[in-house]
Amino acid sequence: MPSQIASIKSVKAREILDSRGNPTVEVEVVLIDGTTGVASVPSGASTGKYEAVELRDGDKRRYRGLGVLKAIEHVNTEIASAIVGMSALEQAAIDQRLIELDGTANKARLGANALLATSLAVAKAGASFRGVPLYRYLGGSRAKQLPVPMLNILNGGKHASGSIDFQEFMIVPVGAADFHKAMQMSSEVYHSLRRVLEDKRLSTNVGDEGGFAPQLPANEDALRLILTAVDRAGYKAGQDLFIALDPAASTFYQDGEYVLSREGVTLSPTEMIDYYVKLISDYPIVSIEDGLVEDDWANWSLLTARLGKKTQVVGDDLYATNMKRLEKGIDQKASNSILIKVNQIGTISETLAVIERARQAGWTTIVSHRSGETEDTTIADLAVASNAEFIKSGAPCRSERLAKYNRLLRIEEELGKAAHYPGKRVLYNLERIE
Ligand code: PGA
Ligand code: ZN
């Protein structure tokens, strides 16, 4: 029986370092026939309150307390004994076993990092055992759509201290005919932005996600610089490329107000919504993620009611890739799109279920990296497997960001004629996009 020879022989974890030089968990799963799956987990900086718990040692003598030796120990002992002997092809059963073994609602006991690295490594071993690419293994024969990339070319907030209040200014190359062209356009705009910044004697140092991190007085300056860069690269903003924002508003929310310290203004929730309404009428913005704080459901509904037809309203920290929170969001019409981060929830099965549920509600999904990443490219395969409309993997700069985009370039080539790049059609729920 094939499932017998796909049984797990060993599960081993190790501590490796992420793109910020902080420890993270890598797991290696070996099947009895020798097939191996290796996966590592990312880590956020603007981490949401409702995310599954990333277990850190807290031992200040190692890595400023950020070591993950406890999580590693959990994989090598409890997790390994629970899943050794199970078939790697039974992803749902394995993930269920991991969830039950942990026993907490937020995976705090064994650590979401321990669980996720195991879950992903099992999936990779399963795909390898079957002799198919991961996107095909997870997505079956329907997996053929390349996501539209959202490239964070200007970094602020917690990813680049001292630069600008909003965390992310992204370009969205919906006008491209295919994924290859989308990457070409984006890279050209990125390099054009470098020249625009140099001309203005602004810094071209980059932030955690590879985007430039100049010190700018206001968010609108970033938008203007990007429009100039698009134009100078020979493209049309609002046609070839659009802009997406991730203010990550929870990071500048204080006592009921939004404190834009670079601009020197403090806004109430309704004023903040008015501010977005003005921004989207003045700039070709098609997506705003975490425009408001992660707890304010009532104002999220208001934001979606006011902006939802003109722009994608995306919940990241708001949902934390959590089914219960997503259900609440659907019920309250809190947004029309969800950001998907595997480490916010901790298993591949739960992630796929959240994507599926969002799609049933008519929402778009954006599979996303974290600001702390590794060379692991699972999210590229996950995006194709789930027919996600978008992927967020930072700027076309820094290898941990490009690893995902490069994986998608290879997948597009492998799919050949079957590959489908949706372009503008991903914005199907917006009125102003023909
Ligand atoms: P994080 O940021 O990975 O630092 O949490 C990414 C995001 O907010 O989308
Ligand atoms: Zn975000």
What does this structure look like?
- With 434 residues, the protein is an alpha/beta fold.
- 38% of the residues lie in helices and 17% in strands.
- The protein has 14 helices and 14 strands.
- The strands form three sheets. Strands 4-5-6-10-11-12-13-14 form an eight-stranded mixed β-barrel, surrounded by six helices. A three-stranded antiparallel β-sheet has the order 1-2-3. Strands 7-8-9 form a three-stranded antiparallel β-sheet.
- Helix 13 (378-385) packs across helix 14 (399-415).
- It binds 2-phosphoglycolic acid and zinc ion.
- Residues 246, 248, 289-290, 316, 339 line the site of zinc ion (ZN).
- 2-phosphoglycolic acid (PGA) binds at residues 44-47, 246, 248, 316, 368, 370-371.
From the helix content, strand content and strand pairing, which structural class follows? alpha/beta
User: Which residues sit in consecutive blocks of at least 5 with pLDDT less than 50?
Assistant: none
Give the SSE order as H and E letters.
Answer: HEEEHHHHEEHHEEEEHEHEHEHHEHEH
Number of strands: 14
Q: What gap, in angstroms, lies between the N and C termini? A: 52 Å
Radius of gyration: 21 Å
State which percent range the strand residues make up. Answer: 15-25%
Strand arrangement across the biggest beta sheet? 4-5-6-10-11-12-13-14
The ligands bound in this entry are:
2-phosphoglycolic acid, zinc ion
Distinct helical segment count: 14
What portion of residues is helical?
25-40%
The geometry reads as globular
Q: Kindly report the average pLDDT value.
A: 96
Largest sheet: 8 strands, mixed, barrel
